[in-house]
Amino acid sequence: MPHSKATEGNCCSAQDALADRSIGQRLHDLAVADLLAAEAQLARSGVDRHEGVHQARKCLRRTRAILALAQPGPGSRGDLLGAALARLCRGLSTLRDAQALLDMLARFGQEGAQIPAMLPDAIAAAKVQRDAMLARFLLRDPDLLARRQRIAGFRAQLERLDWKRSGDNDVARAMARSARRARKAGRQARKHPRDSKAWHRFRRRLRRLNQQNSVLAEVAPGLCLRLPALEHQAKALGEAQDCQLLLARCARRSPFAPALRPALRQLARQRLQQLRHDSPGDR
Q1: pLDDT grade, residue 76 (50/70/90)?
Q2: Distance (Å, rounded) from C-alpha 97 to C-alpha 199?
């Protein structure tokens, strides 16, 4: 179909307008979209609420990753907002952990674990704990409305930040800093393979780096880092964290019957060793 000169002119104008927007402004748009998505996810009801909490936390963490790219430097308003987002995210972590425990047990069943006969009892116990925890949350914060209102407040704070000042060089430096921090944490984790805190730190920094690389793939592909194993490593370390969670839940105040715990510990430790081997810190 032939294009009129007016149509061509409109297309050029739209492209020029996009080109005129700074990378900071484009990051702003993604941050706003993530906070809107987090609100929507926390509004889910019934059994979907568990997945909603998980997705909302992912959106909040990604917003923090965006802030770190666009607002580098300590003491900035972006840092303060990032800290507030982190507090909200941590406040939802116990709910997410309860669901992650169920997911971990389900994966063992799918992988043909040696204790399939025990798994249904373990899953049932974890489900009871998860549902009871959610009920307590909803008693204090019906429909998670207070948390959703906090996120709406965060969106207002985003608008008061100076996104225009962030240029390609600022974002590239922030990205390089994230990569250095991830490499350093990885070296420490390999140096101290039994140190759970070191592995946790490595996981968080690798996740941040992966999030930021994914964000740049949307707004500035030329600034992405070439790290082909990044996503795989981040996923493996996330599952390793779930193994640590299972080990912790096999200790005191465990939802599992005493007869189940030794076998669950063995499964978690074997899987944890394998995952850490697949995610060496010096890559």
Answers
A1: confident
A2: 17
